[in-house]
């Protein structure tokens, strides 16, 4: 499946407006298979909107989403999931009355596998995520941390070329968060997919991402390697200039 | 806690246990009624078993999709009339229903093929209406199922030359015994179970739990619902055929709001989240109905007859349904099936989750 | 020509009746995501309150025998209290349930009330002579119009305008719109849920009372199901208007009324009995083209 050709997911000049509010204004982004791209920015920067656009939940007002050279802006979320774009949600959005294993099996079925194959794929992902111990548990009985991990596992169970993770570590303590970031860093080599990782804490994802994209107020502020971004004058001004506020919000 | 692999026999037993737990009690009731019961009791049991078919039919769509359907009894009507046209009163048909096409008006068909084609017609109508309705979101679809109910009611009530309007079509062969109703109930339960345990069943349950997350998992909101609606229509059709050949008459106003309410009340009381809920709901509500029917008829106490006013049964049923919705939203069964371990399943899961928490 | 005008007046008058019912349903849906089947029984019970309970088909008048002002006030009081009671007893305990559960619970409440009416008044249709004088035709600009249609249009217009003023100008109305937009947020901002919902039910009760009086004046009969068809049509009015949108509900009411009258007027005679089926069919066709309804409400779309 993987490694045949390098897949690319791109956003070209994406604008999203809700009524008069511009959530995104002309954002370009490129996600390559096999890499982790961090998407950071303060609350309201448009990070989740960007993920919604890339996964088909939000149609761009202007601009386009391109998957391997094909314009997929018109596709709905279900078609994009089948085309290889998986995602998780800020609120885990698990199927609460199902077991963990069934949650992952749904993703397998959704991408056209038979029941057996989907269950097998689900078991593999659970094993890799260290979640086999809760496989038979109903999702409304999971601990918070497990819930978050299962939501990532479910996105991976699509065997997507790209997986978009929307603040996977939110609400976790430092140790849990570090462990999770370690896991996420290894997703490309294990599943061969490109990862888009939303986080508003820059420190947390420095070690995980090959590249980082900074959004602020719906515009791209900077993109580059973690080092470049950290030293980018615009980023420094945006973040450090608001240091007092930033500390309160754990921005840096 | 190592996963011990199950033997194929154990897996089979685990898979079918919840179904057997529903079917065997039904079988026992039929055997007892057959051996010891009066004709009245046998009729009551038969009626209840037909309701099992109907409520399981509604459950297949409503339970799995989470979308309330007020229109499902329409498909009963479609099949009931279809089997009536094929099997009823060969002498009278040309006079009472002159508008029927020749192959129906001038011929009478064997019962079993008539039942099958009627069920197929119900499924077809469900499929075609589903093509339109399932494009809408949950609530709009629910409301629109009402439109289906009213459209067919208006059409069949006024299409005098084919349906005899609001008059009853009489003289259908009455072949539905408790055993035949049991057979149909078993078919309905097995169909519902196999469907809900299949990948397709899992997919539609995902849309019920969370539409957004289901789409993110590549699951369409449309096709799984359409399939469930069609399958539900087929089983409702079976219920319609049974009703027709149990009563021996077919009348369009029988398949209207009252039956819709009764079927939904049963589903709600049992719990619409599980197949067991559908069956248990039929049992519970059938008992309530029967008790109050008798009390309305009058209970003689030492020479004086005490009777509840007619209509009490309906009020009680509505109150029971509301009480369930308020105090036990997921019904008697709480969305659970009768699993191996019985009701301990969910609780045990919660217990281990608390114990198992901590660092990896 | 005058025939066409008559058809148009029929359409507007029926449409405004449906718009009233649809607004009542839309208002309650807005504040608590409940599609209220029992609206039908508010209408029915309001009408039955006019007569003394009995098995007779031409029963003695009760509230219906009072002087007009007291009669209207009496029906208003009965229906409003009924609406509040159903809210308090049945719907409030379920406030946090999902819309499907609420829908089915209102179906149960409706079934209960309908059979309560049957228990008290029997299920037979009754005739009642209230407002007979209003059906006399009035001549305006050379066109003769039945007085009750004029009454319907005037009442509907007054209530529509009143509702708009209430929603736009009064603090309670503004709170109600805020609650309809985003209930959680409105609560955080200090909107008192119980009061807003209760007021929504009061308004839906007032509208139901108006509709029941108008129906009685028009038809002179009482029937256990007299509220059912207007409410079913109003459901579709809210759906084609776009669920959660009040202007949409009113617009939908007029559309359904228009379709109904046009079919009645222009269908060939032998197809006329199928009119209601045609209305529903057209409604479904509209929904096929616009599954979200004509006016898409932003709050109704789920946030990801």
TrEMBL record, chain A:
Keyword Nucleotide-binding among UniProt keywords: yes
InterPro entries reported for this sequence: AAA+_ATPase, ABC_AA/LPS_Transport, ABC_transporter-like_ATP-bd, BCA_ABC_TP_C, P-loop_NTPase
Occurrences of domain ABC transporter (ranges): 9-242
GO molecular function list: ATP binding
Pfam families associated with the record: ABC_tran, BCA_ABC_TP_C
Stored Gene3D superfamilies: P-loop containing nucleotide triphosphate hydrolases
SUPFAM superfamilies named in the record: P-loop containing nucleoside triphosphate hydrolases
Assigned keywords, A-Z: ATP-binding, Nucleotide-binding, Transport
Annotated PROSITE patterns: ABC_TRANSPORTER_2
Protein name (Swiss-Prot/TrEMBL): ABC transporter ATP-binding protein
Organism whose genome encodes this protein: Ruixingdingia sedimenti
Automatic annotation (TrEMBL), chain B:
Membrane spanning residue stretches: 15-37, 49-82, 111-132, 139-156, 176-195, 226-247, 259-292, 304-327
InterPro entries noted in UniProt: ABC_transp_permease, LivM-like
Membrane topology: Multi-pass membrane protein
Subcellular localization(s) per the UniProt record: Cell membrane
Keywords: Cell membrane, Membrane, Transmembrane, Transmembrane helix
Superkingdom of source: Bacteria
PANTHER family associated with the record: HIGH-AFFINITY BRANCHED-CHAIN AMINO ACID TRANSPORT SYSTEM PERMEASE, HIGH-AFFINITY BRANCHED-CHAIN AMINO ACID TRANSPORT SYSTEM PERMEASE PROTEIN LIVM
Name of the protein in its database record: Branched-chain amino acid ABC transporter permease
Organism for this UniProt entry: Ruixingdingia sedimenti
Phylogenetic placement of the source organism: Bacteria, Pseudomonadati, Pseudomonadota, Alphaproteobacteria, Rhodobacterales
Automatic annotation (TrEMBL), chain C:
Name of this protein: Branched-chain amino acid ABC transporter permease
CDD domains: TM_PBP1_LivH_like (cd06582)
Keyword Transport: yes
The entry's keywords: Amino-acid transport, Cell inner membrane, Cell membrane, Membrane, Transmembrane, Transmembrane helix, Transport
Sequence similarity: Belongs to the binding-protein-dependent transport system permease family. LivHM subfamily.
Membrane topology according to the record: Multi-pass membrane protein
Localisation: Cell membrane
Primary site of residence: membrane
Segments crossing the lipid bilayer: 12-35, 68-86, 98-120, 150-167, 196-218, 224-242, 249-267, 279-296
PANTHER family: BRANCHED-CHAIN AMINO ACID TRANSPORT SYSTEM PERMEASE PROTEIN LIVH (PTHR11795), HIGH-AFFINITY BRANCHED-CHAIN AMINO ACID TRANSPORT SYSTEM PERMEASE PROTEIN LIVH (PTHR11795:SF371)
InterPro entries referenced in this protein's UniProt entry, alphabetically: ABC_transp_permease, BCAA_transport_permease
Pfam families for this protein: BPD_transp_2
């Amino acid at each position: 499946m993987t490694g045949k050709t390098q897949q690319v997911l791109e956003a070209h000049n994406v604008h999203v407006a809700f009524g008069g509010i511009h959530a995104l204004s002309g954002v370009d982004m490129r996600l390559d298979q096999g890499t982790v791209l961090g998407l950071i920015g303060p609350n309201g920067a448009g990070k989740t909107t960007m993920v919604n656009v890339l996964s088909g939940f939000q149609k761009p007002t202007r601009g386009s989403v391109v998957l391997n050279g094909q314009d997929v802006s018109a596709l709905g979320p279900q078609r994009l999931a089948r085309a290889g774009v998986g995602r998780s949600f800020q609120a885990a959005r698990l199927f609460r009355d199902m077991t963990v294993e069934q949650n992952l099996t749904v993703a397998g079925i959704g991408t056209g596998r038979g029941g057996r194959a989907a269950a097998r794929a689900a078991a593999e992902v659970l094993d890799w995520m260290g979640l086999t111990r809760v496989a038979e548990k109903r999702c409304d009985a999971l601990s918070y941390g497990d819930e978050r991990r299962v939501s990532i596992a479910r996105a991976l169970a699509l065997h997507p070329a790209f997986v978009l993770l929307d603040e996977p570590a939110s609400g976790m303590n430092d140790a849990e968060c570090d462990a999770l970031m370690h896991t996420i860093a290894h997703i490309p080599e294990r599943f061969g997919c490109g990862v888009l990782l939303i986080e508003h804490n820059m420190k947390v994802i420095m070690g995980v991402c090959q590249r980082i994209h900074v959004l602020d107020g719906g515009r791209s502020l900077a993109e580059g390697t973690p080092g470049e971004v950290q030293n980018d004058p615009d980023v420094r001004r945006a973040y450090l200039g608001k240091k007092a506020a930033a500390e309160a919000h754990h921005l840096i | 806690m190592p996963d011990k692999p199950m033997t194929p026999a154990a897996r089979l037993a685990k898979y079918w246990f919840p179904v057997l737990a529903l079917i065997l009690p039904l079988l026992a009731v039929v055997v007892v009624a057959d051996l010891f019961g009066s004709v009245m009791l046998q009729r009551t049991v038969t009626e209840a078993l037909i309701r099992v078919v109907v409520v399981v039919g509604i459950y297949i769509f409503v339970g799995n999709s989470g979308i309330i359907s007020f229109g499902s009894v329409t498909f009963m009507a479609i099949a009931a009339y279809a089997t009536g046209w094929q099997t009823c009163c060969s002498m009278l048909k040309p006079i009472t229903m002159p508008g029927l096409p020749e192959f129906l008006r001038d011929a009478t068909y064997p019962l079993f093929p008539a039942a099958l084609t009627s069920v197929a017609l119900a499924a077809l109508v469900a499929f075609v209406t589903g093509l339109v309705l399932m494009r809408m979101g949950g609530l709009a679809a629910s409301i629109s199922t009402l439109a289906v109910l009213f459209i067919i009611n208006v059409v069949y009530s006024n299409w005098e030359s084919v349906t005899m309007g609001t008059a009853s079509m009489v003289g259908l062969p009455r072949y539905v015994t408790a055993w035949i109703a049991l057979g149909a109930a078993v078919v309905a339960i097995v169909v519902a179970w196999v469907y809900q345990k299949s990948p397709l069943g899992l997919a539609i349950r995902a849309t019920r739990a969370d539409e957004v997350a289901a789409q993110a998992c590549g699951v369409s909101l449309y096709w799984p619902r359409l399939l469930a609606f069609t399958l539900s229509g087929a089983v409702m059709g079976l219920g319609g055929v049974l009703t027709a050949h149990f009563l021996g008459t077919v009348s369009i106003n029988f398949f209207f709001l009252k039956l819709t309410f009764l079927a939904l009340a049963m589903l709600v009381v049992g719990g619409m989240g599980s197949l067991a809920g559908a069956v248990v709901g039929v049992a519970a509500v059938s008992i309530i109905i029967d008790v109050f029917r008798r009390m309305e008829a009058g209970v003689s106490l030492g020479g004086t007859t005490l009777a509840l006013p007619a209509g009490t049964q309906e009020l009680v049923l509505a109150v029971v349904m509301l009480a369930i919705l308020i105090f036990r939203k997921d019904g008697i069964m709480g969305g659970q099936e009768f699993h191996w371990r019985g009701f301990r399943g969910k609780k045990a899961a919660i217990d281990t989750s608390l114990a198992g928490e901590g660092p990896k | 020509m005058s025939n066409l005008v008559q058809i148009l007046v029929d359409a507007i008058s029926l449409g405004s009746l449906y718009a009233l019912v649809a607004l009542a349903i839309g208002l309650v849906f807005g504040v608590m995501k409940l599609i209220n089947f029992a609206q039908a029984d508010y209408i029915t019970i309001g009408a039955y309150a006019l007569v003394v309970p009995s098995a007779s088909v031409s029963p003695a008048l009760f509230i219906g025998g009072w002087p007009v002002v007291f009669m209207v006030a009496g029906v208003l009081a009965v229906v409003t209290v009924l609406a509040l009671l159903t809210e308090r007893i049945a719907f409030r305990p379920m406030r946090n349930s999902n819309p499907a559960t609420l829908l089915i619970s209102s179906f149960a409440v409706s079934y209960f009330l309908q059979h309560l009416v049957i228990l008290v008044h029997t299920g037979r249709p009754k005739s009642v002579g209230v407002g007979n004088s209003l059906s006399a035709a009035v001549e305006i600009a050379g066109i003769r119009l039945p007085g009750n249609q004029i009454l319907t249009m005037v009442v509907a217009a007054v209530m529509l305008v009143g509702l708009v003023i209430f929603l736009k100008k009064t603090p309670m109305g503004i709170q109600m719109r805020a609650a309809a937009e985003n209930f959680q947020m409105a609560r955080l901002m200090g909107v008192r849920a119980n009061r807003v919902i209760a007021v929504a039910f009061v308004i839906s009760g007032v509208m139901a009372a108006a509709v029941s009086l108008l129906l009685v004046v028009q038809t002179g009969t009482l029937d256990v199901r007299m509220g059912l068809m207007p409410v079913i049509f109003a459901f579709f009015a809210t759906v084609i208007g776009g669920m959660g949108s009040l202007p949409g509900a009113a617009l939908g009411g007029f559309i359904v009324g228009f379709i109904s009258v046009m079919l009645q007027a222009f269908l060939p005679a032998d197809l006329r009995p199928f009119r209601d089926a045609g209305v529903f069919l057209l409604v479904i066709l509209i929904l096929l083209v616009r599954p979200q309804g004509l006016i898409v409400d932003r709050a109704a779309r789920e946030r990801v």
